[in-house]
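Narrative of accomplishments. A recurring question from our advisory board has been how the design workflow behaves on a single, concrete structure rather than in aggregate. To address it, we present the structure tokens for one chain from the evaluation set, followed by the sequence designed for it. No filtering or post-editing was applied between the two.
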């Protein structure tokens, strides 16, 4: 049973409602043999006036359990203080159930000027059929006596008394009930009095705050009474969890433990078909097979969830007792009790052991603080035992899809298994999701033309079990047009002037569903500037903005347990932004934002993890501050004209570049001292003399070997990044192709050099020029290796897709500097090699290179930088 929250103007209705499951019955008038309690009529009542203009003087509940059936007596008194109170003061209602209850109205009195006016006969009493759960598919047959009192004036005091005889026979000789200890308006006096036989084992609560307890025995009858005086209004703040609201209830029960409740419920859920013909029919229809427990469970669950509609006829004992599975399967409808009973019976035919489990959808784990009673529960689910372990099923869910292990867990905290050996509440497991339940991938494409900026939005949201059900229902009921209208209105709250480019599209998969949306936004750069706010709107919904006032009650924290929103923004002008990570976390939530730059893409990822359902009032101030910090991270302001990002100045990001520069210094120093003894070092510092000496001693052939090594190193350097990321035979083929291309370049440039030498009067054989060229590649070999060191041998950092990133920029700058140095040094070495092989001055060698190879190198560099894509 779930009770609603009452406003002050509904106070009279709240006081008059029994709140149980019942159906309508006739009423009669009869005097109360005990007479009125005089405490309801004080001469001067200090009770504050409620917001509806009424002063509520007293509410007395008396339950008599000593007779053949329970009798519940209620007495209420209040005073009309202001004209605005006339409407509510002149009406009250009584809810009851005719299948097992009768109503006796003892008094409807108006006190005016010290005189009692009996208004029983003059009052208009209507018997109404009120089905509060009609829209949810639940009918309990309850009726209501709606009483309208005539001639109510300011200053009148109204008092009415009635008794409801009878109690739900589903509980047999047991008794369970509860009442409110506080209301939404201040109250002068509140009493709850119980008379019960001396041999009745009745569990009674401790006195709530502001109440006193009295008890005793009279004529062999035990009595117990709670009395509270001058009770303040119940201050229910917004987002107060149900566990706190229900803590203000006064409970009594004949159950002395959860085992008593399980013993009471076990006979109601036999979980078996009595009619074997019906059982055999459904075994065949659903292919229930003891050799296939998992498949049988999936098919039985799909049938009960999808083909047995949710409708409850909860009249009489059916308020707590389910119908037989034969009845449910024949009429194809039922409430949670009926659908559970049917599923357990079907699983029994498949050889799968299953038990009903009582849960509370509002209190969840806080049910452990309730008094053991059947009234502590408002829902029932199924726990099935498979060889792989227990499986939990809610038969009232929409038909679930996919493997059992991937379905959304039941978030009910604790439950009571209905079985003879059940003695205590058990945990309803709900492990933390491995994947986000709501996963948003958003793309923003920025462009600018003639001073006007435009951004195209593509929003794709993956909904997973636990969140996907509402999305499917929304598209089914409203259609894409209705959903799109709501989505656009929602998005325009963040981006004024946004327009949709098409209707949203739902792509429904086996378990998940994806919703795709597309929008566009344009603005005038001169009038509104080049700034833009990237807003993680989905996460913003889960991170509330809290008030500054101190809180008296716990706070209910919402949002999914795990959600994520990734926004990728593309700008041709690049981003002047550094990578970064921010985290806000406490015992109740964890929020993490990661900012990353990859070339012209800015990616901002925000993850939200809700770690608790409730936050104590004492932690509210800290929660508010942390939520404020979290909300500050959910808008990222950018300037579309800011350009490329500056390099990182973090020492960690400069580690490899510094190592490469230090290595360069040590290597060149060593090569300087070895320049006369080692050809490799000689080609760096005295290439003309080194080549001339090699030619004189007929040792130029070493140049061919060095050239081949350079071809291999250059090819690996150019293609190594792709190989590091994803090696494949195709990429290795590309490496071999690059080697061949570089070898052909070597041969071609050798011919160009030979021709230039002839123009300047030097006839040198092609093989000697070819070998001298090979010797001159030493600077390329050395500085290419040093560039590899600069990027920490992460060669893909020099590929186009990875080139722009503040973190990588120090390494990339060092590598590019070393490569340019190697290129220039190679040209100088090549000039010296040409002079050495031709037996001329260095100046002549430089002239040869300047008119032949150098222009080709310049042209090739310009083509690579400006003309090739990427």
């Amino acid at each position: 049973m779930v009770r609603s929250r009452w406003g002050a103007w509904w106070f009279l209705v709240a006081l008059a409602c029994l709140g149980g499951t019942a159906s309508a019955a006739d009423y009669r008038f009869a005097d109360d043999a005990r007479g009125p309690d005089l405490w309801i009529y004080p001469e001067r009542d200090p009770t504050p006036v409620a917001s509806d203009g009424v002063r509520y003087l007293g509410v007395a509940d008396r339950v008599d359990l000593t007779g053949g059936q329970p009798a519940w007596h209620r007495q209420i008194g209040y005073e009309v203080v202001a004209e605005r109170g006339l409407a509510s003061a002149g009406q009250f209602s009584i809810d009851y159930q005719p299948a097992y209850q009768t109503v006796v109205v003892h008094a409807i009195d108006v006190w005016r000027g010290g005189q009692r006016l009996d208004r029983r006969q003059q009052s208009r009493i209507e018997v109404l059929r009120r089905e509060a759960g009609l829209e949810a598919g639940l009918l309990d047959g309850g009726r209501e006596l709606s009483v309208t009192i005539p001639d109510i004036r300011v200053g009148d005091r109204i008092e009415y008394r009635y008794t409801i005889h009878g109690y739900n026979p589903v509980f047999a000789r047991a008794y369970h009930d509860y009442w409110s200890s506080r209301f939404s308006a201040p109250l002068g006096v509140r009493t709850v009095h119980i008379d019960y036989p001396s041999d009745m084992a009745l569990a009674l609560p401790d006195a709530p705050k502001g109440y006193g307890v009295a008890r005793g025995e009279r004529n062999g009858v035990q009595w117990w009474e709670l009395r509270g005086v001058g009770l303040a209004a119940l201050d229910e703040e917004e987002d107060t969890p149900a566990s706190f609201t229900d803590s203000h209830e006064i409970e009594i029960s004949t159950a002395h433990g959860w085992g008593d409740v399980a013993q009471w419920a076990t006979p109601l859920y036999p979980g078996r078909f009595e009619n074997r013909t019906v059982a055999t029919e459904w075994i065949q229809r659903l292919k229930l097979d003891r050799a296939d427990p998992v498949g049988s469970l999936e098919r039985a669950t799909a049938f009960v969830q999808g083909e047995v509609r949710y409708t409850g006829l909860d009249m009489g004992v059916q308020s707590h007792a389910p119908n037989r599975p034969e009845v449910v399967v024949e009429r194809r409808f039922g409430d949670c009790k009926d659908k559970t009973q049917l599923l357990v019976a079907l699983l029994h035919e498949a050889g799968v052991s299953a038990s009903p489990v009582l849960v509370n959808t509002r209190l969840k784990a806080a049910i452990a603080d309730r008094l053991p009673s059947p009234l502590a529960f408002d829902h029932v689910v199924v726990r099935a035992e498979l060889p792989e372990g227990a499986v939990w099923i809610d038969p009232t869910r929409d038909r679930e899809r996919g493997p059992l292990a991937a379905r959304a867990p039941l978030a009910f905290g604790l439950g009571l298994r209905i079985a003879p050996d059940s003695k205590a509440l058990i945990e309803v497991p709900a492990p933390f999701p491995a994947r986000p339940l709501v996963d948003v991938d958003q793309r923003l494409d920025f462009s600018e033309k003639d001073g006007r900026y435009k951004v195209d939005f593509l929003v794709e949201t993956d909904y997973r079990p636990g969140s996907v059900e509402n999305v499917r229902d929304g598209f089914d009921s409203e259609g894409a047009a209705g959903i799109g209208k709501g989505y656009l209105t929602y998005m325009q709250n963040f981006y004024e002037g946004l327009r949709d480019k098409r209707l949203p599209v739902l792509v429904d998969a086996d378990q998940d569903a994806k919703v795709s949306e597309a929008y566009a936004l344009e603005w005038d750069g001169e009038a509104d500037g080049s700034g833009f706010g990237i807003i993680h709107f989905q996460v913003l919904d889960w991170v509330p903005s809290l008030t500054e006032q101190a809180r008296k009650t716990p706070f209910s924290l919402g949002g999914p347990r795990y959600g994520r929103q990734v926004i990728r923004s593309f700008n041709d002008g690049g981003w002047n932004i550094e990578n970064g990570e921010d985290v806000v976390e406490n015992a109740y939530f964890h929020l993490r934002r990661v900012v990353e730059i990859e070339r012209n893409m800015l990616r901002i990822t925000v993850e939200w993890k809700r770690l608790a359902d409730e936050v104590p009032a004492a932690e509210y101030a800290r929660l508010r501050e942390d939520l404020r910090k979290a909300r500050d991270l959910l808008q990222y302001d950018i300037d579309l004209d800011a350009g490329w990002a500056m390099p990182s100045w973090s020492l960690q990001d400069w580690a490899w570049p510094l190592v490469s520069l230090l290595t360069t210094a040590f290597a060149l120093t060593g090569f300087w001292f070895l320049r006369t003894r080692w050809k490799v070092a000689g080609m760096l510092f005295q290439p003309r003399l080194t080549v001339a000496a090699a030619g004189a001693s007929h040792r130029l052939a070493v140049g061919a070997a060095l050239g081949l090594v350079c071809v291999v190193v250059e090819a690996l350097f150019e293609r190594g990044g792709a190989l590091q990321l994803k090696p494949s035979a195709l990429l290795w083929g590309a490496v071999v192709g690059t080697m061949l291309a570089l070898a052909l370049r070597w041969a071609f440039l050798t011919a160009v050099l030979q021709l230039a030498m002839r123009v300047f009067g030097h006839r040198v054989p092609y093989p000697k020029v070819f070998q001298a060229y090979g010797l001159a590649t030493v600077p390329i070999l050395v500085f290419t290796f040093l560039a590899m060191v600069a990027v920490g041998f992460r060669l893909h950092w020099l590929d186009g897709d990875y080139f722009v990133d503040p973190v990588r920029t120090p390494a990339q700058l060092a590598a590019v500097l070393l490569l340019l140095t190697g290129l220039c040094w190679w040209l100088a070495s090549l000039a010296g090699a040409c002079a050495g092989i031709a037996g001329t001055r260095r100046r002549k060698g430089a002239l040869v290179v300047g008119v032949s190879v150098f222009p080709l190198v310049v042209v090739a560099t310009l083509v690579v930088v400006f003309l090739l894509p990427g």
